[in-house]
Amino acid sequence: MSTVATAPVLRFESVRKTFGEQVILDGVSLDVPEHSVTVLIGASGSGKSTLLRCANLLEEVDDGAIWLDGEDVTDPRVDADAVRRRIGVVFQAYNLFPHLNVLDNITLGQRRVHKVTRAEAERRALELLDRLGLAAKAKEYPDRLSGGQQQRVALVRAIVSEPRVLLLDEITAALDPELVTEVLSVVRDLKEQGRTMVLATHEMAFARDVADQVCFLADGVILERGTSAQVFGDPQHERTRRFLSRVREAGRL
């Protein structure tokens, strides 16, 4: 789906984040257009996950600003919980509540945070579960599901509230290789639906196929940014070329 030429849904403006003396993000600026998929690539420790955590206000930025629909959400006066209600997040750990069944895991936030009635929350959840082939698992508990099924449930939980942007952080990292495909197919479907997404991934072939915008991070800086064809097909920065060369040697691209 083509991007819309309007103000970005999410904007990072000169974002800086440190942990002690270590600089994790060093002046990162990035626009995420509506109905687009932005993919963050780079070696472990390059700052990808921290950037996503800053976007969801799980980490406080040291300098710069993050804007969601034109609102500076890093302003200390902003209600962080209200911001998070507009952002869907899925991490590599599924983070499902083990004492709740699938349906309750998905609807809890809808009922408690968004004040949706139980009947409406369950209707939305069951519709999405059916779409992802999980309707029969609605009453199961997480420990009865495969890793791929748990991650798909986590995706349903993240999108059921229709967030403005979906942040996906290495969502296949904890999965066995045979389960990766089923989770990535869900992300492809979300792209086709026009969801605005930012995802960090080591699945390079997937990143190449799904991304509208690719950002290569190293040492907390975006060294290269462009379309999938540009970054994967004709990288301009030497470090990008070296990174992709190693990826190809490992058979991941």
UniProtKB/TrEMBL annotation:
Pfam families: ABC_tran. PANTHER family: AMINO ACID IMPORT ATP-BINDING PROTEIN, GLUTAMATE_ASPARTATE IMPORT ATP-BINDING PROTEIN GLTL. Keywords: Amino-acid transport, ATP-binding, Cell membrane, Membrane, Nucleotide-binding, Transport. One of its GO terms (cellular component) is plasma membrane. GO terms for molecular function: ABC-type amino acid transporter activity; ATP binding; ATP hydrolysis activity. Residues 10-244 form the ABC transporter domain. This is Polar amino acid transport system ATP-binding protein. Belongs to the ABC transporter superfamily. It is found in: Cell membrane. InterPro entries: AAA+_ATPase, ABC_ATPase_HisP-typ, ABC_transporter-like_ATP-bd, ABC_transporter-like_CS, MetN_ABC_transporter-like, P-loop_NTPase. It comes from the Bacteria. It is a peripheral membrane protein.
